[in-house]
Amino acid sequence: MYKIAVAGTGYVGLVAGVCFAEVGHQVTCVDIDEKKVNVMKSGVSPIYEVGLEELMQKNYAAGRIDYTTDYKAAYRDADAIFIGVGTPEQPDGSANLSYIATVARQIAESIEKDCLVVVKSTVPVGTNDKVEQFIHDFLVNDVRVEVASNPEFLAQGSAVHDTLHAERIVIGTESKWAEEILMGIYKPFNLPIVSVNRRSAEMIKYASNDFLALKISYMNDIANLCELVGADIQDVALGMSFDERIGSKFLNAGIGFGGSCFPKDTKALENIARQNGYELRTVRATIDVNKDQKTLLYKKASKRLITFNGLKVAVLGLTFKPGTDDLREAAALENIPLLLEQGADIYAFDPVGANNFAILYPEGKNGRGSIKYVSNVEEALAGANVCFIFTEWGEVKAVKADMYKELMRTPLVFDGRNIYQIKDMETAGVEYHSVGRRA
Ligand code: UGA
After folding, report:
1. Which of 75, 196, 209, 254 sits most deeply, having the most CB atoms within 10 A of its CB?
2. Is the CB of 329 inside a 6 Å radius of any atom of ligand 1?
3. Which residues bind substrate (predicted)?
4. Is 377 within 8 Å of 399 (Cβ atoms)?
5. Residues labelled catalytic
6. Positions at the binding site for NAD(+)
7. Distance between CA atoms of 224 and 426, rounded to whole angstroms?
């Protein structure tokens, strides 16, 4: 078993740390935020993620995981240090590497024995060469240190499961020594390992995410055409999915992809290409289609209604997908300001994301309109003139077609996630608009 330190306790770092502890390694998670460290020590997760708290508590009690702000103590005698800090998008679409640089310098100044530094954060191809050089430049003690790439493929909402049951582990190393350490760390997971060089590993991460994003934008593009020619995107997707070369996953048309990864990684890869004198046209198209798709429901509703002014608007779902409280790049964030500008009185329901949304859009009067956060779907729908479905939460999917008819003043529904069968909504007497299907 290895002594592992993890820098950064966001999605990537914390989940990795907890899962390493779960398979028996000795883990110390480092974060600069003392309050957050104390919260984690008490067994509370700073992020909403199914199953994470249970594992935090279990492994803390077993003494396999600890949390600290004292990076020196954590890094000093670690066999491996995993970096999972953020690489946020900069205004020009490139990745901000300043957090990685800070951690790299702290590592260089702290380690007292041979150590493998493993970058889990998504970084532009070639960054890990620079991280290694940077660490060597600042190294205080005479020890062996190398940098490996080990991109993360977990999805929010299923992060723990995705880590413990990953379809593959990708490791990018430049020496046998580094490869053996990483192979050893991942051995207890008993998962397929793809071992490549460092730059290829960095590229696998971007190429995978951007391919999935491309798949979504492609389906959205086809969905828009389906509406014009009278085809149904769900039937089309079903027909396509039997071809194993296409696969059945990530074919759901809707209101575009959000989250912290696809939007950022598409722009980052486009940027990497541009810096190398190449134009990635498929990725540009992915971004363009997604941008338009985000406000599709608002555009559809604007065609149907003369005004939103004074209308009660029910909003079901605020987060970028179910199972998370994350709002980053969520379609709701694009549509709600437009609705408020037009004087809509919004009643929003989200089982987990409402508090975060209220920080950005506090309850009450907002521009010409207003927003109120309600604790159940019924309250949102009662007396509403129109309903928007932005996130396919279980609570939303559980709403029967009849309920829209019964509760709303006018049963007019714009569904960005194609939750319902058109037939069911028709039978219930609901005017139903979705994506890529008959209006
Ligand atoms: C994504 C990838 O799925 C992970 O493999 C990757 O590790 C992660 O990014 C990352 O780089 O950290 P995540 O952003 O958590 O994970 O969420 P996804 O489940 O992939 O969904 C992203 C967006 O695509 C959501 O807004 C979702 O609604 C949308 N989507 C997904 C569709 O519109 N259609 C689909 O068929 C699938």
Report:
1. 254
2. no
3. 205, 250-254, 258, 321
4. yes
5. 261
6. 31, 36, 87, 122, 264, 328
7. 21
157 CA distance to ligand 1 middle (Å): 10
CB 69 within 8 A of CB 103: no
Please tell me the total number of residues recorded for the chain in this structure: 439
Residue 384 to residues 122, 133, 340, 404, 406, Cα–Cα distance (Å): 43, 60, 15, 9, 11
- The string of pLDDT tens digits covering residues 387-424 is 999 999 999 999 999 999 999 999 999 999 999 999 99
Ligand 1 centre distance from Cα of residue 332 (Å): 16
ipTM value, please give it: 0.98
In ligand 1, which atom is closest to the CA atom of 213? 24
Ligand 1 pocket: which of 262, 292, 417 to mutate (most atoms within 8 A of CB): 262
What six digits make up the tokens of 196?
């490549």
Q: Using CB atoms within 10 A of its CB, is residue 146 exposed (0-12), middle (13-18) or buried (19+)?
A: buried
Query: Would you say the CB of residue 257 lies under 6 angstroms from ligand 1?
Result: yes
Question: Residue 46 is encoded by which pair of tokens?
Answer: 């700073």
Q: Note whether 67 and 94 are within 8 A (CB).
A: no
Q: Are 256 and 321 in contact (CB under 8 A)?
A: no
Backbone angles phi, psi at 319, to 5 degrees: -75, 165
pLDDT in tens, 50-80: 899 999 999 999 999 999 999 999 999 999 9
CA of 318 to the centre of ligand 1 (A): 16
Indicate the helix (H) or strand (E) that contains 211: helix 198-229
* Domains of the chain listed by start with CATH number: 3-196 (3.40.50.720), 205-289 (1.10.1040.10), 294-433 (3.40.50.720)
CB contact set of 296 (below 8 Å; sequence gap of 6+): 255, 256, 416, 435
108 and 140 Cβ atoms separated by less than 8 Å: yes
